[in-house]
Amino acid sequence: MEGGFYVANEHFDAIVVGAGPAGSAAAYTMAKAGLSVVLMERGEFAGAKNIFGGVIYRKQLEDIIPEFWKEAPLEREVIEQRLWLLGEQSVVTFGHRNEAFKQPSNCWTGLRVKFDQWFAGKAEQAGALAIYETVATELIREGDRVVGVRTDREDGDLYASVVVVADGVNSLLGKALGIHREWAPDEVSLAVKEVIALPKEKILDRFNLEGNEGVTIELVGQTHGMAGLGFLYTNQESISLGVGVMVSDLKKKNIKPYQVLEGLKAHPMVKRLLQGGETKEYSGHLIPEGGYHSIPSLCGNGWVICGDAAQLVNFVHREGTNLAMTSGRFAGEAIVEAHQRGDYSKAGLAGYDRRIAASFVHKDLKKYQGMHALLRDVDPTIMFDKLPYAVNEAAYQMLLVDGVSKAEKQRMALRGIKNATGGSMNLLKLGYKGWRAING
Hints:
alpha/beta, FAD/NAD(P)-binding domain, D-Amino Acid Oxidase, Chain A, domain 2, 3 domains, nine-stranded mixed sheet, eight-stranded mixed sheet, 15 helices, globular, FAD, oxidoreductase activity
């Protein structure tokens, strides 16, 4: 080692590019098994270039680090999950609150800047060599085999038996492999998020919580008729509020993402939850939304790809970190097997493909493979504007005691929902398409 970097041309068992959840999971898994591993990150520290809402699920991380919750920088234990359909000045709410989510915990809210540093630190403790503020500019090849990466450091070539590509949605190395094209605007969303400081006592009071309990709220509506979802998550002494909108719709509407977020903040039902808060952080991030049909080849001669770089995101349930960590673990396990055999070819790394195919990652993405086509084919103003408004108006009328009969109110509600979708036949077609889209 020289100057905290590395000796030129030094050879490692594996190089992991990207210290997000996928990359750190892979690095930890391999280093714990005794492999020599480099974990490379372009930010000045892990998490510096990353954001998420962010929910951290127990099962997938526990499979990597048992009882991680005893030391990981987690925010709140989520005991309630809500879905809000927003009208102009109203909300129709669905939700589930359950003490069983504590026995054991299902998930926690978290702040990526803290969590990523901790997770990468665990990989370092296991023996991985972390290199920060370093960009992998291209792959080094010998014939059809990847044998290392070239970096933006002077004399910065690194060599390894296998390279783990975990460099995010706009994967530079994925493009170099020819498996990662420039995503179409309808395959990615742009998410913007604010972290809003709020005293712990106010969070407990406003969300009906005790101790370390937490709530997540998914928001549908108030996105200017564009396909997108908002989110509001409780942290210890802050709120994470954000919204992700399809890039294709942002281009069509010529609306800036921050304008959508400001609209959500101004909604009376959201505004009261944020009252008195102070914005401490604002960030933006692309999120892969292509789903099942956008998943590239996952391995080849001397390389594997995982996490966002492999489009492994379940946008229907807003799950990404758990898929990323699982894919990173699977990649690491497959590489350990390849190391034992001394075979880093595509066939030698095929255990990664097999693990993904047999897991919830592949099964869930396959189940929702029709959602992308649904969002592409259906006017987003119907699903993300007119229908939420119609449902709110129907609820208002049904609960308003004004001398109009309940039978007439039911007819009014049905007319409003039909009008929102363009008539009875369109409503039936939308229902059928939606059912098909969520059932593979």
